[in-house]
Amino acid sequence: MSEAGTRAGDIVVQVHAQLREAILSGDVRPGEKTSQAELARDLGVGRTPLREAVRMLQNEGLVLAEPNRRVEIASLSVEDVEELYVARIALELAAARITLPQLTESDIAELEGLMAQMAHLGGGGPDGNGHHDRIALFRVPHRAFHERFVMKAGPRLAALISELFDHSERYRRIYGAAAADHFARRQLEHRAMLDAAAARDADGLAEMMALHYVDTARLVANALDPESPLTRLRTTVAVLAPGAMRAFG
After folding, report:
1. End of a domain among 46, 73, 100?
2. Of 70, 123, 199, 202, whose CB is crowded by the most CB atoms within 10 A?
3. Which of 57, 49, 42, 55 is CA-nearest to residue 5?
């Protein structure tokens, strides 16, 4: 590839990363419509790299195609969040069972360290003095914590899980699953996952992971549609981690 081609590819990667983060963080609102020309102008890039970046986001399901080069950010829905957590539970429970026998004592110690970081960064309510910065910092050890449980399952599975984590984060940020008033419960769930891993209890780890994800999925679903039966999620949990069915009440 020529040097010019390499530079063009780098620009596409940068534009894609910038737009993707804006969508996942909620800086660009779900359902918002704009034009490729407006996006290119706002980002200070040419139409060609912008078009390619939009195509990549469309393939990921974050952007919807519209005629006349319009761009619509994918909306949020209870159907979508249920599908996300069905996929996360199915993939991550399998990946955790593959990973658990390969975890070393050093890995367990790293998980303890990540727990400590989350406790330091995530506690406390909005105080008008750096709260949002703390939450942004919290997401780093939080992501790393979850990755440790699935990291030995293989690169293809890890890539799929990473994408699903990102899409779930879009819901968590907007609907408050990461908010301070839910933090204590989330930390108890994290602790239960880590304790099961330290005990080499694969069934216990699967159950605690499923409980953790069902709690978050139900919190978001209740905000979107309190009447949703979440049938697909219930079926998935009943098959893969029946002990976690108690999360549905």
Report:
1. 73
2. 202
3. 49
